[in-house]
Amino acid sequence: DSGVTQTPKHLITATGQRVTLRCSPRSGDLSVYWYQQSLDQGLQFLIQYYNGEERAKGNILERFSAQQFPDLHSELNLSSLELGDSALYFCASSAEPLLRGANVLTFGAGSRLTVL
Amino acid sequence: DAKTTQPPSMDCAEGRAANLPCNHSTISGNEYVYWYRQIHSQGPQYIIHGLKNNETNEMASLIITEDRKSSTLILPHATLRDTAVYYCIVRADSNSGYALNFGKGTSLLVTP
Questions:
Q1: Which chain A residue has its CA at the smallest distance from B50's CA?
Q2: Which of B24, B87, B75, B76 has its CA nearest to residue B52?
Q3: How far apart are CA B2 and CA B23, in angstroms?
Q4: Are the CB atoms for B10 and B107 separated by under 8 Å?
Q5: Is A19 helix (H, G, I), strand (E, B) or coil?
Q6: Burial group, residue B90, by CB count within 10 angstroms (0-12, 13-18, 19+)
Q7: Rounded CA separation A96/A35 (Å)
Q8: Separation between Cα atoms, residue A82 and residue A13, nearest integer Å
Q9: Cβ of B93 and A31 within 8 Å?
Q10: What is the pLDDT of residues A45-87, one digit of tens each?
Q11: Touching check for B100 and chain A: CB below 8 Å?
Q12: What is the CB neighbour count within 10 angstroms for residue B20?
């Protein structure tokens, strides 16, 4: 158990639907990162939040959005789902950011999304 | 961030040392070298990181060349459970976000 909790573990839905993935970071970690891993794309960084605020953005589609709540858990919202959104979605957390070289991300077990 | 080049795949016999190379010839002075691995469909796992000096922890050793243009991750006694994709990532220390960009990595197969 890495300390990063992701729910649900598996999710099957239809095209056009909307889903929410949830992530609870490791205790004490202020940053949360979302990654997408599909078969042909590898691990793609989507977005990072630090203490409730967006810190960095990667290849996140406009149909996707995320937020980090005051208790530091984060949610990734995926809407108007397409077949190509089927993927593993990983959340990671890290301690921040004043420790030099402390770029150690701890990943959760992932949420597997299947869009039919 | 500096680009890294890794061989797509490697084999290693169980019990032997696995030496995974990474080329990062455009690395800047403030960029760290990180290694992560991903066992099939699990979340990536941090292994080790370093700046200039060689580093060792309970999982592995990291050897960085003097010019910092390449590095080698060493798993001293590989086991079957070390079969995974290993990612070498170069990233600067920054206050503006710590997201790591994972490339294709090296798929390591440890055989009995």
A1: A101
A2: B24
A3: 10
A4: yes
A5: strand
A6: buried
A7: 18
A8: 10
A9: no
A10: 999 998 999 988 998 999 999 999 999 999 999 999 999 999 9
A11: yes
A12: 23
B53 and chain A: CB distance < 8 Å anywhere?
no
Beta-bridge partners for A13: A115
Q: Is B82 helix (H, G, I), strand (E, B) or coil?
A: helix
A15-18, Cβ contacts within 8 angstroms, sequence gap of 24 or more: A15/A81, A15/A82, A15/A83, A15/A115, A15/A116, A16/A80, A16/A81, A17/A81, A17/A115, A18/A77, A18/A78, A18/A79, A18/A80, A18/A81
Q: For chain A, say whether B46 makes contact (Cβ under 8 Å).
A: yes
* Token reading at B110: 């440890």
Rounded CA Rg of chain B: 13
pLDDT in tens, A4-27: 999 999 999 999 999 999 999 999
